[in-house]
Write a structure and sequence with these properties.
single chain; 269 residues; mainly beta; Porin; twelve-stranded antiparallel beta barrel; 1 helix; 3% helix
Amino acid sequence: MRIFLTLPVLLAAASPALAQDSSEQKNEALQDETRFQLLAAVDHMVGDVGDGLDYETTFATTGVAVTKGRFSASASIPYISSTAPQDVIINQGGLFGTSLLASEDSQTGQVKREGIGDLSLNAAYQLPVSSVNATVGATVKLPTASQEKGLGTGKVDYGVSGQLSRKMGSVVPFVGAGYTIIGEPDDFETRNIVSATAGSHLLLGNNSALTASYSYEQSASSSIGDSQSINMGFGTNLTRSVRIGVDGAVGLSDGAPDTKVGLKLRVGI
């Protein structure tokens, strides 16, 4: 089986699991001042692509985000270290990530590869509506990863998304959906991706929150099953300008990583 495997990089500026979790934060976000943040994340994922073809991948991601009024934007790029079957391409692009495609050819030898991944550019706008927090966003993945090493497809991906959340006491339920246009690699057929997530934050005081959610993402190939997972996370402010978070996920389908753990850091500058 020959497979392209996308693995998501979840940053605070782009993840629905980190939607605004208090009215104080919402009011602060709507101020007219321009705020900058440094972003850092480490994600480790393990799984298989069928027939005992295991993979293990770590992303160490750095980036920067800017927020002004209702508008926010971020840019991030990962360093990838992966051990995977020889014909698997590790590619973090897309809104949430899934197995891309497969053909009848098969090479099963495990290969260790390392290098810079694809550059992700994200933008979001908080709509001026009352009673709910509504955000629309767009993502572009630029092919900065080495195609020869199998760290990317060498193509540009585009995505759009929308998110809704509402604070109800200490509970903040949210839903999100996205659509990604996949850049088609040479000699392969792909389809665009529909994705969705739903869950809730549980606010713990003014600075911390627990998050639980379910995520679904359609496979970009009819040969590969769709991705479904259960996600858990915790985030807290260490100081006024420093926020740290941990998260994990368990795959519910063959198209999702079996397990994922991550550490996130945001630092205001």
